[in-house]
Design brief:
The complex is a heterodimer. Chain A is mostly beta strands. Chain A folds into two domains: 30 residues; 219 residues. Helices cover 11% and strands 44% of the residues of chain A. Chain A has four helices and 14 strands. In chain A, the strands form two sheets. In chain A, strands 3, 4, 5, 7, 8, 9, 10, 11 and 13 form a nine-stranded mixed sheet that branches. In chain A, strands 1, 2, 6, 12 and 14 form a five-stranded mixed sheet that branches. The longest helix of chain A has 13 residues. Chain B is mainly alpha-helical. Chain B folds into two domains: 181 residues, Cytochrome c-like domain (Cytochrome Bc1 Complex, Chain D, domain 2); 136 residues, Orthogonal Bundle (Cytochrome Bc1 Complex, Chain D, domain 2), CATH 1.10.760. Chain B has 14 helices and two strands; from the N terminus they run αααααααααβαβαααα. In chain B, strands 1-2 form a two-stranded antiparallel ribbon. Chain B is globular. Chain B starts with a helix and ends in a 17-residue tail after the last helix. Classes of the chains: A mainly beta, B mainly alpha.
């Protein structure tokens, strides 16, 4: 294929998901606050790095050494169907408890029935050069040899792993077709209300066990590593089953 | 005796001061040094200079970083140790790159020139933006093997860098973004547009008969992939080189995972090609003669060979000589000797280790 033909395609997918910024910076009278608290689990147990031995759905033992992911393009949908979009890219890291709390201080009052967010970084930010803050490449979440952010990383160790050092590495990324592994999470938030000048809390559980099980069970002896976008198709669909709402607490 | 001593002291002082003055002049960059004059006929650059406009202090910082081995884990290897100015920032006479701890890489060091027109980088096009490019060599275990947080800490702790970051960006904080933008302020200036060929196109100089014959032949046989004025269309092509079984480089397929992209590589620009030997992604050809033998023989390897080379074989000895004569008109001496791009004398920070 010649470049003439390639360029428009490249530009198209780079521009495809330019985030919209309808979230106001300035605080208004009728705005309230929402805190989204992400909690990491393995099954029913709170996730513990390094020291606890877990088993995947094939009963293979392993420890988890790192678990982190990007949340971006957050939308909150009101019961009347209107949606509020929240700018920003958040890197949630099991090792840094503060990173798992996303504070949205200026959310319009109202009843909200759904939250939507992207696990990963939209294509626009994958194509426009150097980024900062949560997207700073020093965070270790950017593939240097095939430019693109790692959307989600789960690292570990298992005696069943056939990789050097019995390592497990599941790095999900890829924003270009046919390996577009950006996944939108949609969660119902029945009864969630935002009242002006108060703080509501939304608790979301991320169950790392689901990342390795349905619909695409991971066998450590066969796939100890997924570090290329073109090998991530299966596990990327497990991401859709990672999250659930566990708590809704409205400010009064 | 006393007089002689005094005279020598004065002489030494004068020499040292003029030395510093010369050095300073060589290193100095003014605003007008950062203006680009691009001849007619060139396309619009893909790099948006407005998002990272070079300033004298930003460029000086970027140049210093480019030539400073502090960017590698053991402070042994700089960008400039692989990318040599007199070779259009390729590496003369090394078929595969030499990195930290004398490790041999998998690919030949390409030129760095006219990168503002380049939509993707590396032989396989894996990197999509000039600003993020340096992360690849900096963090590669066989090149500089330096993690980014560690590098930021080293730069922040060095004697000279915080002051240079302050001059360039307003305060002394070292960040990934600032470091990479500074390096890109240097690399975006590496523009080669003043070869004999360019002066011929501008009507300022004429080509010899042989060079002219070579140009016409080139336009017929080579320009479908190496079109003027950049001498590449940056597409990925398979020119039928047998794969090196030791390196196992799959080329573009490494990025796309598509079998049909195996052994496709980015078409390199042929500007300054006289100086960028050895040739091809693995440096397998020592000279232009060998390159042209490959194109001429028609002995192409593998299933996905590009029709533009396949249908176009046969080059006589004379034709090869004409092509070489033409290719040498692409040498841009002004670019290769440009003082702005030289390793700054006496400025290198040896500290911060």
């Amino acid at each position: 294929m010649r470049l003439r033909h390639l360029l428009p395609v490249t530009i198209l997918f780079c521009l495809f998901t330019v985030p919209s910024f309808s979230f106001r910076e300035t605080e208004r009278k009728k705005d309230g606050e929402l805190v989204i608290q992400f909690n990491h689990f393995f099954g029913d147990q709170e996730l513990v790095l390094d020291s606890v031995t877990y088993r995947n759905s094939l009963q293979q033992p392993f420890q988890i050494t790192a678990f982190k992911y990007y949340v971006s393009n957050i939308h909150l949908v009101k019961t009347d169907g209107k949606s509020v979009s929240v700018p920003g890219y958040f890197l949630l890291n099991e090792e840094e408890p503060d990173s798992r709390k996303i504070q949205l201080p200026n959310l319009p009052e109202g009843n909200y029935s759904r939250i939507e967010f992207l696990i990963g970084v939209d294509s626009a930010r994958n194509c426009s050069g150097i980024q900062k803050d949560a997207l700073d490449p020093a965070k270790g979440m950017l593939w240097a040899w095939n430019t693109g952010y790692i959307f989600l990383k789960l690292d570990g160790i298992s005696p069943q792993s056939t990789a050097p050092g019995h390592k497990l590495e599941y790095h999900i990324g890829g924003f270009k077709q046919p390996n577009n592994h950006l996944r939108t999470i949609r969660l119902e938030t029945p009864g969630l209300q935002i009242h002006s000048k108060t703080k509501s809390t939304l608790g979301i559980k991320a169950d790392a066990a689901n990342l390795l099980s349905a619909p695409h069970p991971i066998d450590f002896s066969k796939t100890p590593m997924v570090v290329d976008a073109d090998k991530a198709a299966g596990i990327a669909n497990n991401v859709l089953h990672l999250f659930s709402v566990t708590r809704i607490q409205n400010g009064l | 005796m006393k007089n002689a001593l005094l005279t020598s002291i004065i002489l030494i002082l004068v020499l040292v001061t003029t030395g510093f003055m010369v050095m300073d002049k060589q290193n100095r960059i003014r605003k007008k040094d950062l203006r680009l004059s691009i001849p007619a006929g060139f396309p619009k650059p893909v790099y948006d200079r407005n998002l990272n406009p070079p300033t004298p202090n930003g460029f000086i910082l970027g140049r210093k970083l480019f030539y400073d081995p502090i960017l590698s884990k053991d402070s042994s290897t700089s960008c400039g140790s692989c990318h040599q100015r007199f070779a259009a920032f390729a590496h003369i006479d090394h078929s595969l790159s030499h990195g930290i701890r004398s490790q041999i890489g998998n690919r030949n060091v390409p030129a760095i020139q006219n990168v503002i027109w380049q939509p993707h980088f590396m032989w396989d096009g894996g990197v999509n933006h000039l600003d993020v490019f340096p992360i690849a060599p900096i963090t590669h275990p066989k090149e500089m093997d330096q993690d980014l947080p560690g590098l930021l800490t080293k730069l922040q702790a060095s004697k000279t860098y915080p002051a240079l970051f302050k001059k360039a960006f307003g305060d002394g904080t070292v960040s990934t973004e600032r470091m990479l933008k500074a390096i890109a302020q240097f690399t975006q200036m590496l523009v080669s547009v003043n070869s004999k060929y360019d002066r011929y196109v501008a009507g300022k100089e004429s080509l010899t008969g042989q060079e002219m014959t070579g140009l016409i032949l080139f336009r017929n046989r080579c320009s479908s992939c190496h079109p003027e004025p950049l001498f590449t269309d940056y597409s990925f092509r398979n020119i039928g080189l047998p794969p090196d079984t030791a390196i196992q480089d799959s080329g573009r397929a490494h990025i796309t995972g598509q079998a049909t992209d195996r052994m496709k590589f980015k078409v390199p620009s042929l500007r300054n090609v006289e100086m960028t030997y050895p040739y091809m992604h693995d440096g397998r050809f020592r000279n232009l003669q060998q390159v042209l033998e490959h194109y001429g023989k028609g002995n192409f390897h593998g299933p996905n060979v590009d029709p533009d080379v396949k249908l176009n074989t046969g080059l006589t000895r004379n034709q090869r000589a004409d092509l070489v004569a033409f290719l040498k008109t692409l040498t841009d001496t002004e670019f290769l000797q440009d003082r702005r791009f030289a390793e700054p004398a006496g400025e290198i920070d040896a500290g911060g280790k």
